[in-house]
Amino acid sequence: MNNFEHNRESWNELTALHTESSFYNVEAFKAGETSLNHIELEELGDVKGKRMLHLQCHFGMDTLSWAREGAEVVGLDISDASIQKATELSEELNIPATFVRSNVYDIEKVLDETFDIVYTSYGAINWLNDLDKWAKIINRYLKPGGVFYIVEFHPFIYTLNDDSEITDSYFKSAPMETIVEKSYTDKSEISNKNLKHIEWHHSLSEVLNSLISNGMRIEFMNEFPYQVYNCFPNLTELSEGRWVSEKHGTKIPHMYSIKAKKLSGSK
Ligand SMILES: C[S@@+](CC[C@H](N)C(=O)[O-])C[C@H]1O[C@@H](n2cnc3c(N)ncnc32)[C@H](O)[C@@H]1O
Predict the structure, then answer these.
(1) 3-state secondary structure labels for all residues of the chain
(2) How confident is the model at residue 24 (pLDDT cuts 50, 70, 90)?
(3) What CATH number does domain 3-258 carry, 3.10.180.10, 3.40.50.150, 3.30.70.100, 3.30.930.10?
(4) What is the distance in A from the centroid of ligand 1 to the CA of 134?
(5) Mutate to test the pocket of ligand 1, among 127, 138, 176, 198 (most ligand atoms within 8 A of CB)
(6) Which atom of ligand 1 is nearest to the CA of 79?
(7) Mean pLDDT, all residues of the chain
(8) Chain segment 168-212, per-residue pLDDT in tens
(9) Which residue's CA is the closest to the ligand 1 atom numbered 13?
């Protein structure tokens, strides 16, 4: 089984746990609450009438939340279970959206159109090995002048061990393999003990340069001294929805966002 197939299998299993978790709180979403955070809502702005491609959409709550904001959305994810649940939610809640199961890197086999916005968020690019290829895909799926937006966990966070000490290099290239024992959501135990995650860490310069060298102009990049999710070890809640490292507080970066525009004439 290749790395992506391992990840597909483990995300299939995690999806079942996540849809039942208080972390994702599907009931609140069904009752009308957005699953989006203030950062992406404010930074991406008005999406009414815009065609949006959401890469790595998991089981679709954020995708459908953008649809509630007025965007016409296509969500893509490698996990069969995620795409099935996303489609069910779309039908049950009567929120129009299209969901496609595919590896990001195989997108051209399943999608042939262009969008005003390509969007991806929180815990996405660590599943991708080749950011140059990723940025080429982003450019290919944007209309001229279209916008790419990402909000992600800061790569610095991945240098910290469970005691919040810097033990890992900020610069990594080799794939990192872990046995999946628990989900980050409710720390639920995984029953299948043979699941593996294969991840890649990407420094900020790698992310930015992949976009710059593939026809994208950076409009802004922001770094945040807090997390919006309690999904890393040893976080403490500073104020509602703002989680920080117990040991380092707001002295270290926790998340970043980038907005970039497709340069006309680039492909
Ligand atoms: C942490 S979740 C992202 C959650 C996201 N913030 C959201 O919209 O809910 C990561 C997602 O990436 C998907 N994924 C992992 N590797 C992928 C790949 N190569 N191509 C497409 N999706 C992938 C997983 O199936 C999972 O749903």
Answers:
(1) CCHHHHHHHHHHHHHHHHHCCCCCCHHHHHCCCCCCCHHHHHHHCCCCCCEEEEECCCCCHHHHHHHHCCCEEEEEECCHHHHHHHHHHHHHHCCCCEEEECCHHHHHHCCCCCEEEEEEECCCHHHCCCHHHHHHHHHHCEEEEEEEEEEEECHHHHHECCCCCECCCCCCCCCEEEECCECCCCCCECCCCCCEEEECCCCHHHHHHHHHCCCEEEEEEEEECCECCCCCCCEEEEECCEEEECCCECCCCCEEEEEEEECCCCC
(2) confident
(3) 3.40.50.150
(4) 14
(5) 127
(6) 25
(7) 94
(8) 999 877 899 988 877 666 666 666 667 899 999 999 999 999 999
(9) 56
